[in-house]
Structure formats: C-alpha cells, structure tokens
Design a protein that fits this description.
With 435 residues, the chain is α/β, with parallel strands linked by helices. Helices cover 41% and strands 27% of the residues. Strands 1, 3, 5, 7, 9, 11, 13, 15, 16, 18, 19, 21 and 22 form a 13-stranded parallel beta sheet that branches. α3 crosses α8, α4 crosses α8 and α7 packs antiparallel against α8.
C-alpha cells in the first residue's frame, strides 16, 4: 500500500479544517483536486469554488469562486475572484485575489504585482509585502517578523518580534513589537532543507523615511524608536512594555540551587528509565543529532512553531465538526464528537509539553555526554547511563546560567524535537523497539 507522506497528511488535515470553516448547507457547488503537484494552467478557467490538497500548488489560470488550498508550497500567479484560504509552508502571491485572503504559513510573500482586494488575515513566521503589492483593505498579522514594503488601503494590526515599514498604509497602524534582546541569535529556518527564502528584518521596530502612514501610529515595545515625522500624518503613541521584577519574590541562592538539583534528579530518573526500556531509541536519536545537526535545528524550529498553529486548527476543526453534525441533527453525536476530539487534543498538548520539558533535554544530554566520554573514556561511553548522567549534569548547569540558560534551553528544545521528527521520518526504528 502506498503511504502518504507526513507533509501531505498535515496538508490534508489543514484542508479538512478549512473546508469545515467555510461550509454552509447551500454552497454545494465546488471542484476538488489532489495530487503531489497540482497546477491550474494559464488560460484554464474554474467556474466554481476549488479545494486542493497537494504538495505543490500553482495557479496560473482563473478561479471564479473561492480557493481553499493546503500544500507545502502555494504559488498564486493567476486570479481568484472570491476568497483565498491557504495553509502551508510557503505561500507566494503574484496575482490577484479579488476578495479576502486568510493564510497560515511559515513564509508568506506578496510579489510586486500582487493584489488582494479585501482583507489579509495571516499568521506565520514571516510576512513580506514587496514594493508594488497591494492589500485593498485591512491587514492583520501575527508571527515573528514582517516587512511591509507594499501598500495597504486601510488599517494594520500586527504583533511580531521584528517589524519594518517602508510602504504606504492608508489608515492607522497598531503594532506590538519585540525588542532587540528578544530575537534568537540565528535564524533556525536557514538550516532547514528546502526552506523558503525570507527577508532579514532587524529586531524591534523600523520605520523608513519612505514609509507613508495616513493615520495614527500606535505601538507597544520594550523601547521607543525615532519615527520620521514625515512618515506619519497622524499621531504617534508609544507604550513601553516594561518587565517588572519583584525582588522579594526572587528565590534565595539555596532555593535556586535545590531547584536545579531537583531538575537533574528528575531528568536522570526519567532518562534512566527510558534507556532501560528503550536503549535503541535513545542511541538512534543521538545518531540523528550527530549526523544531521543543522537539519535537526531547522526541522525542530518548524515543529516547535508549527505545533501551536496545528493545535488551534484542531480545536477549530473539532468545534466546527460538532456544529456540522448538529446541523445534520445527529443528536448527541455532536457532543460525543467534540468531547473525543478535545480529549485527544488535550492529550496531544500534554505530550508535546512533556517532550519539550523532559525528552529533549534527555536527548541532547545523552548526545553531549556520549561525545565527551568517547574522547575521554570510550569504555564508559559504551555504558549508556554514564553519558546520560554526564550530559544531563552539563545541561542543567548551563541552563542555570542567567540569560544564557534561557537561550540554551530554547535551542535544546528545538534540536531535540528536530531529532525526533527526523527519526520518525526516516522510519529507522521499528515500533516494537520504541515501545
């Protein structure tokens, strides 16, 4: 039996959620297409709504209705006369969306000739509106970075770590922006194979001299910036995002040390139990980190930032699926469906948090300890418990360092999740050996 690739499973899941989101009983005329690569050729006309689940989707023709698409890569060169609902890794718009666009993707790019007649509501890692692009009405975006170089007809609401404005915005701008110290020192997506190209946006807020903002500019940030007076026609309102520190609530030195000791003991016990029950699983994960450190970082970043989006999609899908059964008058089935799905989502969330808190540190700790002992004492390295204890001790000590510890903890979580993802994709470990 032919297996569906992981990215296609995710694409189909997102597509199902999007279908539920726009479903109404009277709108039954639509066309569906699904394959690894789907292309609507130039000159081809789709008279109805179009639903697509694929790895790569390219629109060069025209769709008279709405376009609902889930794919790894989505390129819109043609025309959508209705709404666009898209979910994937990379969404590029070079053509025309006559009405609204709702997009969830790692990278979203609007080319020089891109035009969205209505609102753009999007979430993801990066949004890039190039010079010459147009959002006819409002723009709403939540993510990590945004470069607004095109035109927005009305208002902008945005929440990011890095924002640069050098285009024209007809209405007001409301922004919540991070500071220079809140960005990671390196972009993890640059290490992910096949990652889409994304602009480099400086941390914090940047408003260029070429920017034109027709209304007020309201922003919240850890620090204020000098905004060119010629760039804003209305008023500029800045609110400092202060980080309050309650000295009385800070733990004593003894309490802080004991907290890290407890962390080491907890990780060591869980790790020892895992090695006892599944030693092959731990060593394989260590091999993934040794053989593919940069892909582990890149894929880990995708999973780390993508899972929260997936959870939101699953919650929306569960609620809408229950409403769907309710409209069909299936009685208590709708309540049972939402109960089962929400229970599954809750279990998935708990499992993911446990992986971030414990398993990723065990993976990285064992890897570090094994690499060190191989150079110092290969005999001890052959016994898995010694690399585990040495590595976890080093991990806990580094995490305890102020400022640096938080960054290291974040990187450990990402590379650990990435190693798990790569191991799952490689299918090198049989299920019976993991259990």
């Amino acid at each position: 039996m032919k297996q569906i690739r992981p990215h296609k499973k995710l694409g189909l899941l997102i597509l199902m959620s999007l279908l539920l989101f726009i479903f109404v009983p009277s709108a039954m005329a639509f066309e569906g297409r699904g394959d690894d690569n789907v292309t609507i050729e130039a000159g081809e006309l789709v008279e109805d709504d179009l639903y697509v689940g694929a790895n790569t989707f390219v629109l060069d023709g025209t769709i008279r209705g709405d376009l609902v698409v889930a794919a790894s890569e989505i390129v819109i060169n043609g025309t959508v006369e209705g709404d666009l609902l898209a979910g994937g890794q990379f969404v590029e718009i070079n053509g025309t969306i006559a009405d609204d666009a709702r997009i969830g993707a790692t990278a979203i790019e609007m080319g020089e000739g891109a035009e969205i007649g209505g609102d753009l509501i999007a979430a993801g890692y990066s949004l890039h509106g190039k010079s010459g692009s147009l959002v006819g009405q409002d723009l709403v975006f939540a993510g990590f970075q945004a470069l607004l170089g095109g035109d927005v007809g009305e208002d902008v609401w945005i929440g990011v770590n890095s924002l640069r404005v050098n285009g024209r915005i007809g209405g007001n701008v409301t922004a919540e922006v991070g500071g220079e110290d809140s960005a990671p020192p390196v972009d993890p997506y640059q290490f992910m194979p096949g990652a889409p190209a994304m602009p480099v946006v400086p941390s914090g807020l940047t408003v260029d001299d070429a920017a034109e903002i027709g209304g007020d500019f309201t922003y919240r940030s850890p620090q204020s910036i000098d905004i060119p007076s010629s760039a804003v026609e209305g008023e500029v309102d800045f609110t400092r995002e202060a980080v309050s520190v309650d000295i009385d609530s800070q733990p004593s030195t003894g309490q802080a040390v004991w907290r890290h000791v407890r962390r080491f003991i907890t990780l060591a016990l869980i790790g020892a139990l895992l090695i006892w029950q599944a030693p092959n699983f731990v060593t394989r994960l260590s091999e993934q980190l040794r053989e593919k450190p940069l892909p582990s970082l890149g894929w880990g970043a995708l999973v780390y930032f993508g899972v929260p989006v997936l959870i939101i999609v699953l919650i929306v899908a569960a609620i809408l699926l229950a409403l769907f059964f309710g409209m069909l008058q299936f009685g208590n089935l709708s309540s049972a469906v939402i109960f089962v799905l929400l229970a599954f989502i809750l279990a998935f969330m708990v499992a993911f948090v446990l992986v971030l808190l414990y398993l990723t540190k065990i993976i990285v700790g064992y890897f570090v300890g094994h690499q060190l002992l191989q150079r110092v004492s290969p005999t001890l390295a052959d016994t898995p418990y010694w690399p585990l204890l040495l590595g976890l001790l080093l991990v806990v000590v580094v995490i305890a360092i102020p400022w640096l510890g938080g960054l290291v903890n974040w990187i450990i979580a990402i590379v650990g999740v990435g190693a798990l993802w790569l191991l799952w994709r490689s299918d090198k470990v049989p299920v019976e050996k993991i259990a």
